[in-house]
Design goal:
With 317 residues, this protein is of the alpha/beta class. It has four helices and 15 strands. The longest helix has 18 residues.
């Protein structure tokens, strides 16, 4: 059996599924949520599916409420015309999703542990790195605070990790707003930064600092958030759309953008429903926002404001 779920939403007791399922010997006859032998919901079947090239309409869509929903004891049940049933657990759905992500990642040159989700901007970054495989790569925000060390993503590059606090995987301790005081100018061939830019108080100043330390032609990749819950308060400052990046990386700051990316869509809904929020659940944001860029010129811009002048507290430990 082949199947794919391109929407899988579970919010309190609300569940919404959309996808397709195919067997060569039997047609899909029903989809429901089953929990403790109780079945919930009745899917709309045989929806047009021009994106599935198997010669027939295979799509389904299901929206239902499941009281006391517990996914450890629930499955998505697919039933077929010959009486056969196929149960999909949350783990199976996630495994299928990751399989699709890895297939997309391989299309641009690597089955990478990070990032996933078909981030073509990261693929562009890898291709740019291949032009200078023994260059010096700087990771901004390299401390393994959440247990992640990404040094091994770039086995052919010389690596330098910097963070505002000391810790595992940190070579230079410094504030990104002042990193040109600690790293020689025109010495870096690539800059990599993930899950950090939302915590940078003045990202435009960091772009100027990057320009100082990067060589002409050096590549950069930043991955942060467009919509996600606030965290590490009070040091959570920014969210970035794909159209925000040109305000930071542009000719004035000495850069050109190669590609931007928005991925991992998520709904944003209020805790308490009121008439002014009706329909808001149909809008969505993205967990991930990324940009790949390249230094094309020196910049004469300066921003002579220290982060300590604006933010009296230190960053989280």
């Amino acid at each position: 059996m082949l199947y794919s779920l391109d929407r899988f939403i579970s919010f309190f007791t609300y569940v919404s599924l959309r996808g397709w399922a195919y067997r060569a010997d039997a047609r899909l006859a029903g989809v429901c949520i089953r929990q403790r032998e109780q079945r919930y919901g009745e899917a709309t079947l045989n929806l047009p599916s021009p994106d599935v090239t198997l010669g027939c309409n295979l799509r389904f869509e299901l929206t239902t409420l499941v009281p006391d929903l517990d996914w450890s004891d629930a499955v998505v049940e697919l039933s077929f015309g010959d009486g056969m049933r196929q149960d999909l657990t949350v783990e199976a759905i996630e495994a299928r999703r990751q399989e699709l992500y890895r297939a997309q990642d391989r299309e641009f040159g690597g089955d990478m542990a990070f990032p996933t989700g078909g981030d073509a901007s990261f693929g562009d970054f890898l291709r740019l790195l291949a032009e200078n495989p023994d260059g010096l790569l700087l990771e901004v925000g390299s401390r393994a605070r959440s247990g992640f060390v990404r040094r091994d993503l770039f086995p052919n590059m010389r690596y330098l990790g910097t963070d505002i606090l000391p810790g595992e995987n940190v070579d230079i301790v410094c504030d990104a707003h002042e990193m040109a005081r600690h790293i020689p100018h025109n010495s870096i061939d690539a800059v990599f930064c993930t899950s950090t830019f939302e915590h940078i108080l003045m990202p435009w100043k960091v772009a100027i600092e990057m320009n100082k330390i990067m060589r002409i032609g050096a590549a950069g990749y930043i991955r942060t958030h467009q919509s996600i819950g606030m965290h590490d308060l009070p040091w959570d400052y920014w969210r970035f759309s794909d159209t925000a990046w040109p305000a930071i990386f542009n000719r004035a700051t000495g850069f050109e953008i190669v590609r931007t990316y928005l991925g991992e869509p998520m709904f944003v809904v209020p805790f308490d429903m009121a008439p002014k929020w009706y329909g808001n659940e149909n809008t969505a944001g993205f967990a991930a926002s990324a940009v790949t860029f390249r230094k094309v010129a020196e910049t004469g811009l300066t921003w002579n404001v220290a982060a300590s002048d604006l933010e009296p507290t230190s960053y989280p430990a």
